[in-house]
Amino acid sequence: MINPVSKLISSIGATVLHFTPALGRISIYMYHSFLWFIRPPFRRKLFVDEMVFMGNKSLFIVSLTASFSGMVFAFQIYAGFTAFSVDSFVGPIVAIAVCKELAPVFCGLVVAGRCGAAMAAQIGTMKVTEQVDALEVMGVNSIQYLAVPKIFATVVTMPMLAAIYMVIANAGSYIVGTKVLGIDEVMYFAKLSDFMNFNMVLEGLIKAAVFGYLIAIVGTYQGFAVKGGAEGVGKGTNMAVVWGMILVLVVDFFLTALLSKLL
Amino acid sequence: MMENMNQEYTIEFNDVTKSFGEHTVLDHLDFKIHEGKITTLLGFSGAGKSTILKHILGIYHPTEGHIKVLGKELINMTDREIREFRTSFGMSFQYSALFDSMTNFGNVAFPLKEFTKLSDKEINEKVLDLMEQVGLEEHAHQKLPSEISGGMRKRVGLARALALEPKIMLYDEPTTGLDPITTHMVDNLIKTTHKRNAHIPMTTVIISHDINATLRISDYVAFLEKGRVVEHSSVEDFKKSKNPVIQKFLELSL
Q1: How far apart are CA A211 and CA A200, in angstroms?
Q2: A26 with A70, same domain?
Q3: Model pTM?
Q4: Which of B84, B102, B126, B171 is 20 to 30 Å from A55 by CA-CA measure?
């Protein structure tokens, strides 16, 4: 009979053995994608196309999520703060939470769901229909042609989406706070300027860029890792979304700890 | 003497072994492909035909032995050199492998945009010429690959492969899954493409199961069994082969 301690150690060992090669493969992939990013030719048109694609895919949902989360957050904070007669703090509390956390995390989750999935599906389909092989046989590096523009576009677009999120969510909070809940407009802005500073916005933008990089790396990597036919594409797409979202949430914790020391 | 040998053969496999773990796919393979001729690699599934193709393209490297393509040792090349070298190849895929986000015209123009400094006007003219060579009707030019038939896709794939005037043209199962009329059309297309590019001179390598098509269009046939070439001869000699496996293959296929 196997004792529970041995069983636990063996299951930890099995998990480590399962994840170590995958971690190695993705590290090599990250190295190659960086290498092909700095090597010419630089495909500006593909980069712009990817940015437009990401904007089209995400802007509406990001705007919708931003407006409602800003408004709901203002309501919730007001409910708690009004008991202590500090309702004028609604503005800065919402603004700090939105800029430092909600904007990058929500944008990350939306982009992982919409664009990370699309990246894995597109590259995965190209892989199973030999289109990736066709690129390679022609002498075109598939990572440089397919993945690098997506990764670069996501890193650039994510902070833009996060900035849009910040503006819309704060506008929603302002409307609910001052027009619906009756917080004094002058006090709202006075407290906002007392507590907010640019570093809080910068923290959100840096986080958004890092999340964008991770989502794109996972999305494109899962696309290239697709095996088999349609089922493989489905699995790859699913993995891209799941791992993209997990990474956003986990890395957010470590980035928060790091940036709180740096900024 | 060696110089002449190199010029006579475009592709040379010298004692090549390829293993994946404990599984040996190519077993001390020794054969040479004649320059300017059509050679078909024939054999059962799993005999190692596709692995040979990937070695020619430099996608795989041999576990043992040497491969020379166009007089160059692939094993000594850097990744960048291999990529540049691949512009000497044209490849027609089993299911055409056209880029589904581009029109048929865009697919043929793609290698010209990537690897040449031609102006848009020159690319336009070259693409129209290639489309005409493969007999692709004008109404299909601006359609997406998903909007045309399998036979038409083969033509587009071939036009794309020919865009850079390759020295070596590779066909992976060109007629698999096609009806007899389209199969005949593809066979003729391979033959006429080869003849039209005889000035390069173009070497054509076909991977196939289709014995009828092989005997109709090839100059040479290499028969593979368990990772070895058991017969490599002209079509006429191949038909007379005494090898019992080949006799069986011919008997069942014809």
Answers
A1: 17
A2: no
A3: 0.87
A4: B102
Mean pLDDT over residues B34-56, rounded? 89
The region that residue B229 occupies, defined by phi over 0 for left and psi between -120 and 50 for alpha, beta otherwise, is: beta
Residues A53 and A163 both lie in one domain? yes
- Looking at the fold, whether A65 and A157 belong to one and the same domain comes out as yes
Span B85-129, pLDDT tens digits: 898 999 999 888 999 999 999 999 999 999 999 999 999 999 999
Interface touch A137/B86, C-beta < 8 Å: yes
**Is the same domain home to A103 and A91?**
yes
Is B89's CB within 8 Å of A140's CB? no
Distance from CA of A134 to the nearest CA of B (A): 6
- CB-CB neighbors (< 8 A) of A38 in chain B: none
Interface test with B, best of A131, A135, A150 (most B CBs within 10 A): A131
**Number of structural domains found in chain B:** 1
Mutate to test the interface with A, among B101, B144, B170 (most CBs of A within 10 A): B101
Say if the Cβ atoms of B91 and A137 lie within 8 Å.
yes
Q: Do B86 and A129 touch (CB under 8 A)?
A: no
Substitution target from B53, B77, B99 for chain A, most A beta carbons within 10 A: B99
Residues 6 or more apart in contact with residue B54 via CB below 8 angstroms: B60
* Number of domain units in chain A: 2
Identify any residues that bridge with B11 across adjacent strands, giving them in sequence order.
B33, B69
Strands B38-43 and B89-92: unpaired
- Domain of residue A31 covers 1-39
Which residues of chain B have a CB within 8 Å of the CB of A130?
A: 93-95, 97
- What is the edge-to-edge ordering of all strands in the sheet holding B72-73? B23-34, B9-20, B64-69, B72-73
Omega before B201 within 30 of 0, i.e. cis: yes
Q: What is the ipTM of this complex?
A: 0.85
Distances (CA, A) of A76 to A173, A181, B54, B149: 11, 11, 62, 59
* Contact between residue B174 and residue B41 where contact means Cβ atoms under 8 Å apart: no
Average pLDDT over residues B141-157: 92
CATH number of the domain to which B112 belongs:
3.40.50.300
Residues A6, A126, single domain; the answer is no
> Domain limits at B107?
2-253
Give me B141's structure tokens.
């030019």
Say whether both A89 and A35 belong to one domain: no
Same domain assignment for residues A234 and A217: yes
Residue A1 confidence class, pLDDT cut points 50, 70, 90: low
Contacts of B87 in chain A (CB under 8 A): 138-139
Do A8 and A72 fall within a single domain?
no
Percentage of residues in chain A having pLDDT higher than 90:
80
